[in-house]
Amino acid sequence: MGSVGHVQPQSMHFAEPLPLKSGAALRDYTLVYETYGTLNAARDNAVLVCHALNASHHVAGTYDGQPKSEGWWDNLVGPGKPLDTTKFFVIGINNPGSCFGSTGPMQVDPATDQPYGAHFPVVTVEDWVDAQARLLDRLGITQLAAVLGGSLGGMQALSWSLRHPDRLRHCIAVATAPNLSAQNIAFNEVARRAIVTDPDFHGGHFYAYGTVPKRGLRVARMIGHITYLSDDSMEAKFGRSLKGEAFGYSTQDIEFEIESYLRYQGDKFSDYFDANTYLLITRALDYFDPAREHGGDLTAAFAQARCKFQLVSFTTDWRFSPARSREIVKALLDNRLSVSYAEIDAPHGHDAFLLDDSRYHALLRQRFANIAAEVK
């Protein structure tokens, strides 16, 4: 197994407005993307990889001259890897509203010549899927061999099967859900409040003040990171280990190793992620609910799907529990669609979809081998 090597992001500009689910439109926007492998003559070996909350178009490979710049799913995508780039043309697209190059709150609004900031329009999973479809149109790809995503990326994969049912042959949705539970929405709201109440947030227009609401971003990341891990994995990695040799009897200083770890994650996140983007993406998570337009009937929502499905969940993932994947599986079976489901007993919690679990990777390797056999 090898790496795709050094990669180079590309960008594509769109002058035509993108209608958004809110009724607004995104005008004059750019999408950043990367590709790995070669598109075959029949143009039927393309796989779209959809990114989750804090990821981007940089799925695999490295950037020349930048150490530790591996793509966020580099362990899965590459020559000889489960998603084999010697067989597939893999595409990663940075969604609008992000802070990694595609048009988002940090970019200049052509209508005002100022950064969008809080004025960037609210975007949804469905809007992202439509933007991705436009980019694929430009690449001359009319049908995808598969759409793959984990977590929020899995929601996008599911949305592809509903909004563009004839444009994909396989949907592979990992560690995802048909909508967020009330508890999940609550976690997102606490994280958002941490950001918007930071004095440096300035109503979302902090760029003009030369500030960054780092305190809010740190807390938001710490909250989120707790939900990505299982109790077992946190116990195994940190337990009640102290940072020092004994209690310092302080209410503000770091006492436990888990506190040090969370602060490190928060500090790192606040250095590279945009606060307005965090608000937008967590709202997109909240809004995703394909059954809502069908009176809450998920079976009715999936009646329009046509592709084959692979669902994967992890037993210790309490944020997107296996029960949520089973809801999707039932709706697909009710519609007599082709669906395979794997529930993997892994200790890592939600983050398991990013890790090197041999059973999980073997499953995806076999699935993509079967898809490759269908390619012309």
TrEMBL record:
Chief location category: cytoplasm
Broad class of enzyme this protein falls into: transferase
Coding gene?
Answer: metX
Q: Which residues form a coiled coil?
A: none
Which family is annotated?
A: Belongs to the AB hydrolase superfamily. MetX family.
Which compartment or compartments is the protein found in? Cytoplasm
- GO cellular component terms, semicolon-separated: cytoplasm
Q: Where is the AB hydrolase-1 domain?
A: 45-355
| Protein EC | 2.3.1.46
Q: Which GO terms describe its molecular function?
A: homoserine O-acetyltransferase activity; homoserine O-succinyltransferase activity
SUPFAM superfamilies, per this entry? alpha/beta-Hydrolases
Q: Tell me what this protein is called.
A: Homoserine O-succinyltransferase
* Organism, as annotated: Piscinibacter gummiphilus
Marked site (Important for acyl-CoA specificity) residue numbers: R319
The record's Pfam families line, in alphabetical order, gives: Abhydrolase_1
| NCBIfam families associated with the record | homoserO_Ac_trn, PRK00175.1
Q: Which pathway does it operate in?
A: Amino-acid biosynthesis; L-methionine biosynthesis via de novo pathway; O-succinyl-L-homoserine from L-homoserine: step 1/1
Catalysed reactions, semicolon-separated: L-homoserine + succinyl-CoA = O-succinyl-L-homoserine + CoA
Residues annotated as binding substrate are R221, D351
Describe the task this protein carries out.
Transfers a succinyl group from succinyl-CoA to L-homoserine, forming succinyl-L-homoserine.
Q: How does it assemble?
A: Homodimer.
The catalytic site is made up of S151 (nucleophile), D317, H350
Q: Which GO terms describe its biological process?
A: homoserine metabolic process; methionine biosynthetic process
- Keywords attached to this entry: Acyltransferase, Amino-acid biosynthesis, Cytoplasm, Methionine biosynthesis, Transferase
